[in-house]
Amino acid sequence: MQQLTLALAKGRTAKDSLRILEKANIRFPTFHPASRKLIFEDESCTIKMLYVKAVDVPTYVETGAADIGIVGRDNILESTADLYEMLDLQIGRCDFVVASTSTKPLNDYRSITVASKYPKVAANYFNDKHIPVETITLNGSVELAPMIHMADMIVDIVETGTTIRENGLTILETIEPISTRVIVNKASFATKTPLIQDFITNVESVLAKEGM
Ligand code: PRP
Questions:
Q1: Which of 7, 38, 115, 191 qualifies as a cystine partner to 136, CB 3.0-4.6 A?
Q2: Could you tell me the CATH superfamily of domain 4-92+179-209?
Q3: H/E run at residue 84
């Protein structure tokens, strides 16, 4: 029997992703968020879930280690992986923004130093605006960078706005909205078409029922 391998992003959207899968009758009985296990099988043994870091999900899917991935568009954009983006789960909604401790507009800078967990997204954004940019890659707490004058500004995701507010940063520009997506390996889409189409249709009907 053919099996689908699904790479599911750990972190803040995992619970909502699993809730949507459960409504699509895809359940992982041995899964528990506190578990240190990395692979879980669904009840019907047709889906094997790899529970992995969000930043790595596009890599698992692009290399074919996973047929399908569930991950935020922020990580898809940063990875530049060659894959199909099939479905918007409408969860994990946030915005990619440029923010700083200064309110000086971007056009007033001759060159900009940007700290980000998303250096490619940041570089692309400033390159498109023809503003010379230097990127500093950090793995978290990026809001700190402008506060300690390590960078002029940050490119990051904002969900509730609490982190930038509590650290005295202002949103200067919104780059684009982000949400959780279903991505598919290109070769798998050709070799496992019925299984993948069933998965997508199944999840789509859950979203339709929920009015999403
Ligand atoms: C993310 C993001 C912001 C924060 C935004 O960080 O990088 O720092 O969440 O959320 P908010 O608008 O609701 O405050 P995360 O919590 O993943 O931690 P990190 O800084 O360690 O990456």
A1: 115
A2: Periplasmic binding protein-like II (3.40.190.10)
A3: strand 84-88
pLDDT tens figures, 22-61: 999 999 999 998 889 999 999 999 999 999 999 999 999 9
CA of 157 to the centre of ligand 1 (A): 7
Residue with the nearest Cα to atom 1 of ligand 1? 157
Residue 1 has pLDDT above 80, yes or no: no
Distance of CA 50 to the CA centre of its chain: 16
Task: Ligand 1, residue 11: give the atom nearest the CA.
Answer: 17
Going from N- to C-terminal start, the domains of the chain cover: 4-92+179-209, 94-177
In this predicted structure, the answer to whether residue 176 has a pLDDT above a threshold of 80 is yes
Give the Cα separation of 165 and 88 in Å (integer): 28
CA distances from 118 to 2, 80, 113, 185 (A): 36, 11, 13, 22
Collapsing DSSP to helix, strand or coil, 53 comes out as coil
Q: Whose CA is nearest to atom 5 of ligand 1?
A: 158
Nearest atom within ligand 1 for CA of residue 163:
14
How many angstroms does the Cα of residue 188 sit away from the middle of ligand 1? 33
Of 47, 21, 51, the C-alpha closest to 34 is 51
